[in-house]
Amino acid sequence: MEEKETFSYDPEVLARISALKLRALNLVEGLLSGNHRSRHKGSSVEFAEYKDYSPGDEIRHIDWKVVGKTDKYHVKQFEQSTNLKCTLLLDCSGSMGYVSPKQSGMIKMDYARTLAASISCLLLKQFDAVGLTLFNDKVMHYIPPRSKTSHLQHILHGLSTIEPQGVTRVDQVIEKLVERLKSRGMLVLISDLFAREDNIQRNLKLLVSRGLEVVLFHVLHPDEVSLPFEGDIIFESLEDDPQIGLDPQDIREEYQKAVQTQIESYRSLCLGLGVDYVFLETTTPLDQALSYYLLKRQSLTKV
User: Fold this and answer.
1) How many domains does the chain have?
2) Do 60 and 200 lie in a common domain?
3) How does pLDDT run across 179-202, given as a tens digit for each residue?
4) CATH assignment at residue 120
5) For the chain, what is the radius of gyration of the CA atoms?
6) Residue 297 has pLDDT above 80, yes or no
7) What is the mean pLDDT of residues 257-272?
8) What is the CA angle 72-76-81, rounded to 5?
9) In a domain, 182, yes or no
10) What DSSP assignment string belongs to 199-246?
11) Domain check: are 75 and 181 in the same one?
12) pLDDT single digits (tens) 69-99
């Protein structure tokens, strides 16, 4: 059953939506300029809604009857027939809320939010359908795929109102979600993959077996890769583990090796399953991640 969208008018939420939209649109407009323009042309299949005319819109889509009645220019927008429905699966567990003591640039959750928002914007600009699932150990919020331009506002609202909390259980979420996912679609999973009990291999096999194209964005903060801290420190879990006190220097080398081993393990696993694996630190420019996604999307539309 599809959930109804309700919108919060909290000033903080509205400000967050505005900032997220601006970041996403700036990234996408830059990426789609020149040779990266959408190749989707041709006739529309179903009228969806009106929007105010702005320079660059197709003049042939102006509704002249409305102009005659209101003296205002409105452009008809349409839902295009599409072979692609994409579901974004965004990890919103506690560990995604990590903020570095020496934070500069976007925090981890905002980086993941912006990635999800930008991919959504790209999809909708190419007349594809996009949906969003926010999860920790369960589905926290589900927005079904739509291809209307106005659907971006629903996605942005969902991304802006959620706060990282709880533990990660990708396995439970995928098992509950998989029946909703249509074959020949795409699933984009964005997560730090901090989950001890998840059988990620079985989950990915399940998705691939249903004919889905799967892209896995593995997002970590540089602190989580290098453990750069000095002195005796008490580390507190953002999920459910107890506190632990130690000097990072004592374990730094072993820790860094363990992280790199995990990254290579995921990369190897995904390669064997035909899943696209993209490792990102939050210092990686987001247009690199979006370029990768766009190339993947274009490969799916080639005849």
Assistant:
1) 2
2) no
3) 888 777 899 999 999 876 567 888
4) 3.40.50.410
5) 21
6) no
7) 95
8) 170
9) yes
10) -HHHHHHHHHHTT-EEEEEEEE-HHHHH----SSEEE--SSSPPPEEE
11) no
12) 777 766 665 544 555 899 999 999 999 999 9
